[in-house]
Design brief:
CATH topology of the largest domain: TIM Barrel
Distance between the termini: 62 Å
Oligomer: single chain
Strand content: 5-15%
Structural class: alpha/beta
Shape: globular
Helix content: 40-55%
Number of helices: 20
Radius of gyration: 25 Å
CATH superfamily of the largest domain: Aldolase class I
Number of domains: 4
CATH architecture of the largest domain: Alpha-Beta Barrel
Strand order of the largest sheet: 1-10-9-8-7-6-3-2
Length: 599
């Protein structure tokens, strides 16, 4: 059955969308649950069992393979509850009308329903039509492949399949869900290989796949490499989810200056090639594995997300670049009917301006991270530093990865790690300013594996004794232009162009916004290289600058040629691109000057 909507709600943090499918899937909307925090999932399962008067049996950490079992149990519960609410919706006239009204106006289902109900009122015929045409949104899950810590029992390291990401794969694979697994944060060959062990990831003879694979990618080359890698294992990538490198929420994986527009253009031009290559490879792999060969070629969708904020941008991605759907994330943080956002955080998000939403270095993973300045977790962190207790007590340990000082990995945001680093820093003969800068680099790391889940506990009035009340939040820069709490219906009307919830008139086009963020990123990289630029840094900066320059030229050509799009702001876009070109030329000169000094 075709998707009801032309958008999906991507994963947001750890707890913000932990139960979003239960709220939106009955309206045919796909959304994504993070599988990072099994402790949070267990708490939410207990809460929902009590709320719906269902039996609850605790899965404690003393049980073998407790992480995967917690994940399976939570996903099964959400699946059962979501299916129940969807079946109930189909029996209630008002809710069916709400389902239909929320659909895009171009929806064939919407048009058919209008014709059917205007013709005459035959309850049996309408009921049959509803059962045939209304579909539930997919309950998808997300695994960050980099979050894959090793686990121990009684001091002994457990086998690889007990690593966090492996256990999450197993937990999802053993659930009753028929949905998609979104893999993000880069390629993990061993993890991908582990997926071969689960039947639900393989296509059957009819080409149906119970558990589909979705790859979050930043460029075509990555999609091609990973798509073929899976195909060689007999597994099919059902969706390539293109995300902006920096104009997004959560972790930001900057490309080497490749901008979203040119990346989408490359997918547009090579879509058929990608499809043909992957199909050829998977057929041979299935033959080699003596598995069923689908009677028709498998298909995939290509979607885009990151910084989309208007219906015009939404439609442009679909019409011009041929995207099958578009992801909308950060604005939903201001929709209480969708996301778990505590009152204090929501108020800060509503008031946030451009300078408050920034690409930070707070992630213990050492990857850039979009954050809200002075969120409550920041405040909690600064208080601990002031008390001489820098770092977290690391209650959940999901992001441990550093083995510089210990045999077992520890987290760079932990008190243990930061204490070692600060003592090491004190032994160096640094000036006051140098010490202050290095101290900040150490203590800037934040316990986001806890902070990104705490809001769900606060909203649902669950115990936060272990976690504390500090909340980390990871909105994209686009949220600066959404300045009030919104109702679910308002947000959907905004997406589909039936309403406008943005009151500001100075919001830049999504492509221009991303370009400006990349220019700021490059500016910071140049500053980092000012004291002593290595050959590697020089090569990186020049390649980055050249790619940005090509991106600007692509946009200048594209926006000049495209007709009946962005007409009211096109002159502003062209001027912004010209200004960006001048700023980039200045950076070229700076890089050349540093190169001369190096030589």
């Amino acid at each position: 059955m075709a998707k009801a909507h032309t958008f999906h709600i991507p994963v947001m943090g750890i707890g913000f969308t932990v139960d979003t499918p239960l709220k939106v899937s009955k309206f045919g909307i796909d959304s994504v649950i993070s599988l990072v925090d099994d402790i949070l999932l267990e708490k939410m399962r207990k809460m929902y069992c009590e709320k719906f008067e269902l039996p609850y049996h605790e899965i404690s950490n003393k049980i073998d393979d407790f992480r995967s079992k917690r994940i399976t149990s939570y996903l099964n519960l959400i699946n059962d509850l979501a299916e129940k609410t969807f079946e109930e919706l189909k029996t209630k006239g008002n809710e069916v009308k709400e389902y239909i009204n929320l659909l895009p106006d171009t929806s064939e289902i919407k048009k058919e329903f209008k014709v059917l109900t205007n013709k005459y009122l035959n309850i049996n015929e309408i009921s049959s039509w509803i059962n045939k045409n209304l579909s539930m949104g997919s309950i998808d899950v997300n695994i960050m492949t980099k979050i894959d810590k090793e686990n121990y029992k009684k001091g002994e390291k457990l086998p690889l399949e007990y690593n966090d990401a492996f256990a999450a794969i197993r937990g999802y694979a053993q659930s009753k869900l028929k949905s998609s697994l979104v893999l993000s944060a880069g390629m993990h060959p061993r993890l991908y290989g582990y997926m071969e062990e689960f039947e639900d990831f393989y296509p059957n003879e009819d080409g149906e796949i119970k558990k589909k694979i979705v790859l979050k990618v930043s460029d075509y080359r990555s999609a091609l490499i990973q798509g073929r890698f899976f195909a060689k294992k007999g597994l099919w990538v059902s969706e390539y989810r293109i995300e902006s490198g920096l104009n997004c929420g959560g972790h930001a994986f900057a490309t080497e200056g490749f901008l979203m527009g040119p990346i989408l253009e490359e997918f547009k031009k090579n879509r058929e090639k990608l499809h043909r290559l992957a199909n050829d490879v998977i057929k041979q792999a299935l033959i080699d594995k003596n598995r069923a060969i689908p009677t028709k070629e498998l298909e995939f969708t290509i979607t885009a997300q990151g910084g989309v904020g208007t219906n015009e941008e939404h439609e442009f991605l679909m019409d011009y670049y041929g995207m099958d759907r578009v992801g909308w994330a950060s604005p939903f943080l201001l929709v209480p009917e969708v996301a778990n956002v505590d009152l204090a955080t929501k108020d800060k998000l509503i008031e946030a301006k451009e300078e408050d939403l920034y690409v930070s270095d707070i992630s213990p993973l050492g990857v850039k991270f979009n954050s809200l300045r002075n969120n409550t977790k920041d405040i909690e962190k600064e208080q601990l530093i002031a008390e001489g207790k820098a770092g977290s007590n690391c209650p959940k340990r999901y992001l441990i990865s550093n083995k510089d000082y210990t045999e077992k990995a520890i987290c760079t945001a932990s008190r243990q790690f930061q204490k070692i680093k600060i003592e090491e820093l004190k032994s160096k003969s640094l000036s006051e300013e140098e010490y202050k800068n290095e101290f900040h680099k150490i203590t800037e790391k934040e316990c986001i594996c806890v902070g990104l889940g705490t809001s769900a506990l606060l909203v649902n009035e669950l115990d936060t004794k272990i976690e504390g009340s500090g909340v980390s939040v990871c909105p994209g820069p686009n949220l600066a232009y959404f300045s009030r709490e919104m109702k679910f219906k308002e947000m959907l009307n905004h997406i589909y162009g039936r309403e406008n919830v943005i009151s500001r008139h100075d919001r830049p086009n999504m492509f221009v916004k991303e370009l400006n963020i990349y220019l700021e990123f490059l500016k910071d990289k140049i500053q980092d290289a000012e004291k002593s630029m290595s050959v590697g840094q020089e090569k990186y900066l020049k390649a980055f600058s050249n790619n940005l320059n090509e991106g600007i030229e692509y946009y200048q050509s594209m926006f000049s040629e495209v007709k009946n799009r962005f007409e009211d702001i096109k002159s502003t876009i062209i001027k912004d691109l010209d200004d960006s070109k001048k700023a980039l030329q200045h950076m070229f000169l700076q890089i050349d000057k540093l190169s001369v000094n190096t030589n």
